[in-house]
Write a structure and sequence with these properties.
The protein has about 200 residues and is α+β, with helices and mostly antiparallel strands. The protein has nine helices and eight strands. Helices cover about 50% and strands about 25% of the residues.
């Protein structure tokens, strides 16, 4: 839980009362690899912080999964429209690694926290802004050429290439399996040549 407290304090220093309140209401959950955290059609009732592990968010079109987000430690995740409007989710959220540990609060707890501790609006606004910025960056990435997409992800999150199955990565990047492995082979060859 201290990771989340530190994360929130890095946005804006919390009062001791707010910190104590959050420590009281946050719920810890542990998910196994491939375990659903939220299924399409369910209402997203929690906003969550990843203490350890990786999650992915995906949509299904014609029986085919398309990964739209991959998130790791110290990141917050949510099915945004479902959570704020309390409507059925259009996406599914799944743990990618065993023992993925998350902390979460419900929408009612978030609203109560904002009422009791108005200072928390700074944290909420920062998180919303960051979430939208990441979404905008990901949309811009999808307009790049496939090799540029691969390089974009490698620059921002190289560890994902070691921790996430390739099928989720090429789905996230919007490239075919063949193209993904061809780009990876070319990058490895260029790296060996460069040494």
């Amino acid at each position: 839980m201290q990771q989340l407290i530190d994360f929130l304090n890095s946005i804006a220093r919390m009062s001791p009362e707010l910190e104590q309140h959050l420590r009281k209401i946050l719920k810890r959950q542990v998910f196994s690899k491939k375990e659903y955290i939220l299924k399409k059609g369910e209402v997203c009732r929690h906003i969550r912080f990843i203490e350890s592990g990786i999650i992915r968010i995906f949509v299904t079109n014609n029986e085919k999964e398309h990964t739209t987000w991959i998130q790791k430690e110290n990141e917050i995740f949510i099915a945004i429209e479902s959570f704020f409007d309390q409507i059925p989710a259009i996406s599914t959220i799944e743990a990618v690694q065993d023992d993925t540990i998350v902390l979460g609060i419900t929408q009612a707890e978030l609203l109560q926290t904002l009422r009791l501790h108005p200072e928390f609006v700074l944290h909420q606004d920062f998180i919303k802004t960051k979430y939208h910025k990441i979404n905008d960056e990901q949309q811009a990435m999808l307009r790049m050429l496939p090799p540029e997409r691969y390089d974009w992800l490698m620059q921002r999150n190289p560890e994902l290439f070691l921790r996430v199955p390739a099928e989720y990565l090429y789905s996230f990047l919007g490239v075919t399996r063949e193209m993904f492995f061809q780009i990876r082979k070319e990058r490895a060859h260029a790296k060996r040549k460069g040494k």
